[in-house]
Amino acid sequence: MSRSRKLLLYLILFIISLTTIFPFLWMLSSSFKTMGEIFSLTPKFIPSKLFKPGMWENYRMILQEYNFIRFILNSFMVAGFAALGQLFTCSLGGFAFARMDFRGKEIIFALMLATMMMPIQVTIIPEYFIMLKLDWYNTFLPLIIPSILIGSFGTFLFRSTFENMPSSMEEAAFIDGVNDWQMYYKVFLPNAKPALASLFIIAFMNNWNALLRPVIYIDKPSLYTITMGLAMFRGNYGTQWHLLLAGSVISILPLLLIYITMQKYFVRGMLTSGTKG
Amino acid sequence: MQYRKFTPWLFLIPTLLGLILFRLGPMLAAGLASFTRWSVFSPPEWIGLGNYIELFNSDVFLLILRNTIIFSLLFVPGVMAVALLLAVLVNNRLKGMTFFRGLFYLPVITSVVSIGVIWSWILSPRFGLLYQLVSKFFNVVRLPSFLGDARYALLTLIVVYIWKMAGYFMILFLAGLQNIPEIYYEAATIDGASIWQKFRHITLPLLSPTTFFILIMSLITSLKTFELTYIMTQGGPNYASSTLIFSIYVNAFKHFRMGYASAMSYILFIMVGVVTYLNFKFKDRWVNYSE
């Protein structure tokens, strides 16, 4: 590639990067502004309180006065349990699909794949009544349990992971006399660490970002997830942008950290969720 | 040496439970509920096709259907074009490409709710950044309200959602691009083909399986867009940005018209079902590999 062409390419990439990153930077900068600066008619990029006393005031307000610290903990709990649960159910189911023969296997698998694309909105009304019957309204259970049990993507991921492992491993273990559970837990699962990491991240992210189920199953503020807390704050105090943007930064931060440290697994998981329907 | 006969069924208990309790069962139940008049407070009452007749005689519903179709028709080509451009750009083997890929992917991992908050702030009338910049540099006094004006609300949602999702489809396109053997490009270079000719006659045809897959995925994504509408416009002003998926939520959980909402959810079910079916049916035909 010629020098000038390279330069042009970098220029284009730089401009696109700016449109991607600038909204985030603008949010970050605005989250440190005072109400007065937010509603000033000459936009400033550098907030006046930056690196000065009172810089964290918006964050203190939103975390303490508006209880976002609680919402964050709730989200960690919901997304954490849902993701851990999915690791178990999906790897177990995927293992059965990959290594065992039984009647109706392909039909069950096809049904799972066929319903994978269906939005939850299609099934949410009957699901809502199931949750009411179980008396799970205003608990975390409706946010966690369905997500654990419908891990179509994860089951798919683990099926292909386990199918690609050599049968010699299985045969040797059978000769050693392991039982079926040990075969899954002691022989195959330890070899599926990349898949476990990918699925954990994807499941954690999806549950962290979910909005519909929290909105319909939770109305006690002490049980809000961070996403829901943010949506509610926007609905109730929509013009307090300085606080809303601080809350938004807080809600992004955990996923951003995971993304930066584990980018490899993130992208790999996204690819598998994509490349096969 | 083999597994015991009942082991697969034991291992599949959670999967089967989920499939029956939260997927197949509710799909069936929603279908039945769509033929009833049903609020949360009274038991369902069978009214046959009543809900469907009401839907297709309602101007609001026809508007919602129209919005849903416009959303898909603009979102799908838009996001595919942007994603393909990004993928082609970052597919160059130059320093820093991993960094750019990571950067373009950033909006994908960010929750839709935060994205909605950021853009609502940037687009908010008078004090929003966009208004201030435009009025400063172009001396335009009155800009339309992008989210508050019925003419622009839906379009604004579409553009913001393309901004958010382009990185995801970029990664998928990138995987497809990297499967194209380098040797074709080398041969074309020897024959003196221009960049555009290479893109048109090598990249596009060999990418078609990926393109088809992304078409399906982005179509489904467009039908599923709920959170952005919720946070940015609540379907307004006056239903101007309401789509099918958002109206299901409103009718079921704001108006408590469960039967009516179920009928809407069944129309969505059929739309997604058709797309899924097309995917299964045409998946193999689009394959264009030379090997």
With helices defined by DSSP (H or I, 4 residues minimum), what is the helix count of chain B? 13
Please, how many domains of chain A?
Answer: 2
What is the highest CATH level, the class of the largest domain in chain A? Mainly Alpha
* Rg of chain B, Cα atoms, Å: 24 Å
Helix content of chain A: over 70%
Order of helices and strands of chain B: HHEEHHHHHHHHHHH
Number of distinct beta strands of chain A: 0
Task: Give the helix/strand class of chain B.
Answer: mainly alpha
Count the domains of chain B: 1
User: What class do helices, strands and sheet pairing of chain A give?
Assistant: mainly alpha
The CATH homologous superfamily of the largest domain in chain A is called: MetI-like
Briefly, what CATH class of chain B? Mainly Alpha
The helix count of chain A comes to 15
Q: Per DSSP, what share of the residues of chain A sits in E-state strands of 2 or more residues? A: under 5%
Q: Which residue ranges of chain B are poorly predicted, with pLDDT under 50 across at least 5 consecutive positions?
A: 286-291
Please explain how this structure is put together.
The complex is a heterodimer of chains A (277) and B (291). Chain A has 277 residues and is mostly helical. Chain A folds into two domains: 3-55, no CATH class; 61-275, MetI-like fold, CATH 1.10.3720.10. Chain A is built from 15 helices and no strands. The model of chain A has no long low-confidence stretch (mean pLDDT 88). In chain B, 43% of the residues are buried. In chain B, helix 4 (59-90) runs antiparallel to helix 10 (195-223) and helix 5 (97-109) crosses helix 8. Chain B has a two-stranded antiparallel sheet. The two termini of chain B are 38 Å apart. Chain B has a single domain, classed as MetI-like fold, CATH 1.10.3720.10. At the A-B interface, helix 1, helix 4, helix 5, helix 6 and helix 7 of A face helix 1, helix 2, helix 4, helix 5 and helix 6 of B.
